[in-house]
Amino acid sequence: NFEDHIGATFELKDMSTMERFHRWIAAFRMMPELSFTGYGPGTFFHYYKPYTSRLFETYVSENEDQSTVHNYFLLLVIEQGWIGLLLFLGMVIYLFVVGQRAYHNCHDRRDKRVIMAVLVATLIILTNNFMADLVEVDKVGSFFFINMALIINFDLKYRLEKEELQ
Question: Which of 50, 63, 134, 162 is the least crowded, having the fewest Cβ atoms under 10 Å away?
Answer without folding.
Answer: 50
